[in-house]
Amino acid sequence: MKRLVLLGGGHAHVKVLTDLAERPLAGWDVHLVSPYRRQIYSGMLPGWIAGHYPIEACAIALDALAADARVKFHESAALGVDAADNEITCADGTRLNFDLLSINTGPLPAINQLPGCVEHALPIRPIEAFVAAWPELVDRMLDRCRRFELAILGAGAAGVELAFAAQYRAMVDGWSHVRITLVGSGGLPLDGSPDRMRRQVGRLLAQRGVAWLGERRALGLVAGQINFERGPAQRFDACLVVTGASAPAWPRTGGLATDEQGFIRVRDTLQSVSHPRIFAVGDVAAYAAARPKAGVYAVKAAPVLAENLRAVCEGRAPLPWTPQQRALYLLSTGNRNALASWGRWSIGGGWVWKWKDRIDRGFMRRCGTDT
Predict the structure, then answer these.
(1) In a domain, 370, yes or no
(2) Domain-terminating residue out of 225, 244, 263
(3) Considering its fold, how many domains does the chain have in total?
(4) CA gap 128, 115 in Å, rounded
(5) Runs of H (alpha helix) within the chain
(6) Coil, helix or strand for 148?
(7) 166 is in which domain, residue-wise?
(8) pLDDT in tens, 61-71
(9) Model pLDDT for residues 197-229, shown as the tens digit of each residue
């Protein structure tokens, strides 16, 4: 019997699992390898921080999905892939051979070039580690009677949503002594987003009392302080780091073709350009048609991946896929309001949050989570 290994529990592999539950692959032994038994849906994480959702509503049970699909589940992280010998090495010492491999592990936090980050800050990824650490940070804030400086380093969509969520939680729970500062390298938050949306976010941050520290490139962190290339240091009592995505080392060292940043280069069929028996999707992949690192593309690629894996297993040709040039971005602003952008267009309001909430809950229900 041939073996298909799903490496990682990202959004695309969740779709593959639900597809396999409905239509098993005859003659194939399927394995899922992931370091966690659940996958926290990043789109709902700010809502958990703000207090809108329990963490259970934000979690996809990978072990249950695997069981429904009759897929063997390995609770372990990948340490390496040998693309030439078709073998995966796991952190628990397991070695898995494969005939077909699909990689949807997601990115690593981009903190390697930020000295002191691990010792003196809390990175948002891996999300499970952040979720475990957040309640302790809340207790620290509650135990402090005097002013508490919370810095959020990174002003992309994730950092902005985190700032709004923390501000809302502070307002609702009475953390009046907590001062939040969002730090970014651009003149305004959300570099790369429509100018109108960036200005609107800047105004909303000011209205909510979140300080904006722009045009700052961090050199590193020491205890209680972020140092920058220029300008005075930023003091903090706690620092959350949301600085984008970086690639793991093992795809390149394992012999896979990667781009300059180390992400796996794939064809329009989602197959590795160097090893067609290996697929990659999501933030770990460098698509043939380059796109930003955003979860929406993994969600859109998911049905294509599920169908192409099935096609190769059944001896059929995989189908090409081109990611959409524009994507709808929905950004929550903490207080059950949200902003939407499509290309250069943007709009906001309570109805946008309801729209986002309905989309998120619908996605989770399709993944078997009771919301």
Answers:
(1) no
(2) 244
(3) 2
(4) 22
(5) 11-22, 45-50, 62-68, 117-120, 127-143, 157-173, 195-208, 250-253, 295-313, 350-366
(6) strand
(7) 117-244
(8) 999 999 999 99
(9) 899 999 999 999 999 999 999 999 999 999 999
